[in-house]
């Protein structure tokens, strides 16, 4: 009887690990439309592909082929980590570049590699690096949209004030920060409409719904709206449970005020 029980437990354990690995390898794309009363009407709408926490995963062409009509690609940090070949990182960037102009904000694991080499690779591929800096888009009508990015908070390299100092007061601002806690460092005075973050992996492995972090979510805060992504890759082990990987297509447009 004991051998039968051990066999059942072993089979269950192996099956669970297989399920967790399969979940970690999913290529989920969540599509959301976000309407803001202060989004400039002259832009009509913009479509952003947001991906964070790629880590050791490879982005394949079949996955990219599913994604259409993107204006801007944003990598929300942890593009890589230690022991990931630089060539693999380069191949991933090439795939993302097929979608449109690519922006990048540093994550904590990006500093596990030679960050000078990573920085050089990003520049080689003409990726726009948001390291305590901003990038301006301006419509023919003179309306302004700005992407603002901070460096990694874990290593205390973030300087939001520096990133904002050359921005326009009347622009529509999207802030990219690998760590979600950036929302505690500003108020509605900065007029940041949207924050894009990752880092938490949604807890990655959640037992009976509980994990070290909350699942990724879209939250409307008093001073901004924040998207926290479960991320695309994994840390430590290539397993997920209850927090499937995700990437995002965000259609941002305007809405009339009530």
Describe the model.
The protein is an alpha/beta fold. 39% of the residues are buried. The chain has 5 helices and 12 strands.
Outline:
About 20% of the residues lie in helices and about 25% in strands.
Number of domains: 1
Largest sheet: 6 strands, mixed
Strand percentage lies at 15-25%
For this structure, the CATH topology is: Purple Acid Phosphatase, chain A, domain 2
Label the overall shape: globular
Helix count from the secondary structure assignment: 5
Order of helices and strands: HEEHEHEHEEEHEEEEE
What distance lies between the first and last C-alpha atoms, to the nearest angstrom?
68 Å
Order of adjacent strands in the largest pleated sheet = 1-12-2-3-4-5
Poorly predicted tracts of residues: none
Strand tally: 12
Q: Regarding CATH, which class? A: Alpha Beta
Helical residue percent band? 10-25%
By helix and strand content, what is the structural category?
alpha/beta
Task: Name the average pLDDT.
Answer: 94
**CATH architecture term:** 4-Layer Sandwich
CATH superfamily: Metallo-dependent phosphatases
The value of Rg in angstroms is 19 Å
